[in-house]
Specification:
The protein has one domain. Helices cover 22% and strands 33% of the residues. The chain has two helices and nine strands, in the order H-E-E-E-H-E-E-E-E-E-E. The strands form three sheets. A five-stranded mixed beta sheet has the order 1-3-9-4-2, covered by helices on one side. The longest helix is centred in the middle third of the chain and has 17 residues. The N and C termini lie far apart (72 Å). 20% of the residues are buried.
Length: 152
């Protein structure tokens, strides 16, 4: 029972402790904005001003889309804290986790348990971008609407 608790505790610490964000300031920070208003760009919009270079990493996991979304959301939150209303997304990728998870057996008192150890590869998703301030951000794109005329 102790091994199971230790494994769960180790997994919780591992997944919670590995997410990170770093920044290098390139310009002047502004008043913070709501992260929901931060837009993602593939190229710099006209008149934009660079605020900071950002890098983020998701928590350790198995390489899911949720990890990618979490890494990009960390970029948006950090950009918003610096007053940026946009992020130029430079790239998203995966890297092997510095710590792998393994499942095995142990010993308790005078009883020694044996078994097969299984290594489980884990990954982190990483995202890099540049936090920018856009003077007049374009409105979010809207999907075209169609008018349907009933036929008689």
């Amino acid at each position: 029972m102790n091994i199971r608790c230790a494994a769960l505790l180790g997994l919780a610490l591992l997944s919670a402790g590995c997410a990170s964000t770093s920044k290098v300031m390139l310009g002047q920070a502004r008043a913070p904005v709501d992260p929901a208003t931060v837009q993602i760009y593939s190229t710099p919009p006209a008149g934009s001003q660079e605020i900071a270079q950002l890098e983020s990493a998701s928590a350790v996991g198995f390489g899911t889309q949720g990890q990618t979304d979490a890494a990009v959301m960390r970029l948006k939150r950090e950009a918003a804290a610096l007053g940026a209303n946009g992020v130029i997304l430079m790239g998203v990728g995966s890297s092997g986790s510095p710590v792998g998870m393994s499942v095995g057996a142990g010993s308790y008192g005078s009883h020694v348990g044996g078994g097969v150890g299984i290594g489980i590869p884990t990954t982190q998703k990483r995202a890099a971008g540049v936090a920018i301030w856009v003077p007049n951000p374009p409105p979010a794109p809207r999907l075209p609407t169609q008018t349907i005329t009933p036929q008689r």
